[in-house]
Amino acid sequence: MSNLEALKAEIKKLSAKATQAKMDLHDLAEELPANWTSILSVAQQVHDAFDELERKREDLKARE
Fold first, then answer.
1. CA–CA separation, 10 and 56 (whole Å)
2. Is the pLDDT of residue 5 over 90?
3. Strand ranges (DSSP E) for the chain?
4. pLDDT per position as a tens digit, 16-55
5. Confidence band for 2, pLDDT divided at 50, 70 and 90
6. Does residue 37 contact residue 28 with C-beta atoms inside 8 Å?
7. What's the burial of 60, exposed, middle or buried (CB within 10 Å: 0-12/13-18/19+)?
8. Calpha distance 63→31 (Å, rounded)
């Protein structure tokens, strides 16, 4: 597997991770006010997941 293919596979996994994090935040929002104390930590997880995904996508774009 080439470096480019490996990066694309990593992006695919990160995309799934980011989508799951987004859904976790969505589910939390629907359940409010229950578990309101976890909003910041869940939102940080979403932010981190999409930040990492965006950086990898930029890396891929630069390599292509």
1. 8
2. yes
3. none
4. 999 999 999 999 999 999 999 999 999 999 999 999 999 9
5. confident
6. no
7. middle
8. 42
Torsion of CA 20, 17, 15, 49, to 10 degrees: 100
CA distances from 43 to 5, 14, 25, 33 (A): 30, 16, 7, 15
Q: How far is CA 50 from CA 10, 20, 43, 63, 64, in A?
A: 13, 11, 11, 20, 21
What domains lie within the chain, and their CATH numbers? 3-63 (1.10.287.660)
Q: Cα–Cα distance between 15 and 9 in angstroms, integer?
A: 10
